[in-house]
Design a protein that fits this description.
The longest helix is centred in the first third of the chain and has 31 residues. It is elongated and about 60 Å long. The protein has three helices and no strands. It is an all-alpha fold.
Length: 89
Amino acid sequence: MSMNKAVKLWFVNVISFALFSLLTLTGLINWLFIPRGGGNEGGFAVHLRHFLREVHEWTALMFIVMILIHLALHWTHIKSNLQKYGIIK
């Protein structure tokens, strides 16, 4: 593996970990700490819930992109293993 590819993989892994951590944090805060409902009064908790949900959704999209980049960088290894086990030719 070239140094350039190793650096790319390291950055993708670090960014993926940061995104996964943010996904976990926003999901747990929304699920465990912010009360559901709230009706039409639109209090701070309701606005925070909507904000965290939006952050969670965009972070999930970026995480999926990072996973696809990660798979693309490892594609030669994946392909060789699939050929080794006879899954593809």
